[in-house]
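Researcher: Last one for today. Full complex below.
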Amino acid sequence: MTVSVYVPVALSVLVAVISRLMVARLSPTRGTVITVVGAAVLCAAGTTWALVLLALTLLGFTPLAVHEATERGVVLVQPVPGVVGALAAVALVIGVARVVRVVRTRWATRRELRELCRSCGKGELAVVPVAEPHAFAVPGRPGRVLVTQGLLELLDGKERRVVLAHERAHLTGRHHGLRATAEVCAAMNPMLVLVREAVAFLVERNADEHAATVSGSRALAAQALAKAALAEAGGRKQAALGFIANSVSARVAALHEAPPRPDRLLPGGFLILGVGTTIAAVQATLAFYRLIHWLWLG
Amino acid sequence: MRDGARLPRRRRAGEPRRGAGELESEVLAALWAAGHPLTTADVQRAVDAELAYNTVQTILARLYDKGLVGRSAEGRRHLYRPVKGAEELAAEQMQALLRRGPDRQSVLQRFATSLSEEDAEALRAMLKLRRRRR
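Model: Here's the assembly. Have a good evening.
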C-alpha cells in the first residue's frame, strides 16, 4: 500500500515531463493524440483513486475504530500518516471542484457558439459579419465552421481553403472531445497540465497537416496560418502563456519542414506509463483491502 | 469515372479530391469575402482559377437550391450573394463571447493568445519574404 499508492503520482510526473519534451517531435497523427490522451486518463484515474484510498485510511482511525481495536487488543499501526490522508482528502475536493468548473465552462461556451451559428443561418459554414478576424470549429451534429467576414476578406481563395480545411479537420477528428478529456484530467491532477498543453498543440498540428494535404502545399498552409494568427493578434500585446507561447511559430516552422513520419515507439511509451499507473492503482487497492480486512476482522 | 482524360483538369499527384461539401463552403466564403454580388466567373476566380467553370456553376446552383445564396439576373448573367442570417444578433453574440474571461479564451483556443511579440515579428518577416519571392 505505502509504495504502490504513490506510484501513480510518480508516473504522472513522468508522463507530463515526457510529453513536454517530446511534443515537438511527435508525429501529430490521430493515433498519437489518442494514445497521449489515453495515458493522461489512466494517470488521472490512477492518482484520483490513490487519493481516495489515502483519504479512506482516515476512516480506519476514527475514535470508533480505535476504541473497537483496543477492546479487541489490536495495536493499530498507522499505515499512512494522518496528515497525508487529510491532504489527500483536501486534494480530492479541490480536484472535483476544478473538474466541475472546467466542464461547466466548456458546456456554456459550446452552447453560446451553437447559438451564434444559428444566428448566422444554415449550412456548414457560419459567417459572422464582424471585421475582427477569427475562426472556430463548433462541434455538434452536424459540426459547423464559424468564421468572421473580416478573416475571409483578409485571405485569398487558396488561403481560405486552408483555414476551412483546418477547422473541418478539428470536426472530423473530434479534437474537441480529445482536448476536453485532457483538460478534465489536468483539472483533477495538476501535474497533467503539461499533457493538456501537449494535446492542444498536437490537435492543432494534426489539423495543420490535414489542411496542408487538402491545399496541396505546405508553404501555402504555413502562409495562411501565419496570416490568420497575425491578424487575430491584431498588434495587441499578448501575455506569453509559458509553454504555448511559441506554438504558432512552432506550427509554422513544422509546415516548412518535410511532412512528419509516423512513429510507433513514443506512443507505445506513453501507453506503458499509463498501464503502469493502472497496475499500481490495482496493487494499492489490494493492499488497502488487506488493511481493512486486518483492521475490522482481525 | 471510366475515362480520366475527360476530366476538365487532372489532379496533380498528392492533391486530394475535395468533396462537394468542402467546395460549397469555399464558394460561400468567397461570396462573403467579396462583399458584393458576383457572377459565376467572378466566383471561379475568387475561389480557385484552376477550378472548372462548370463545377462552380453546379455548386452555385446547389447552394441556391439550399437557400444559402441569393441570385438576381443582370442581363443574361446571374449575380450571386450570400443569404445573411440575423446579422446584428450574430455580431452581438460574437462580441459577448470574445469579451469572456481567460477561461473561455482557452476553450476557444484563439491563435492570438499564443502569439508573443517576437513570434509575431518572425511571422511578419516570413510573410514578407514569400511576397518578395513571388
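Chain A has one domain: 7-297. Chain A has a mean pLDDT of 85.
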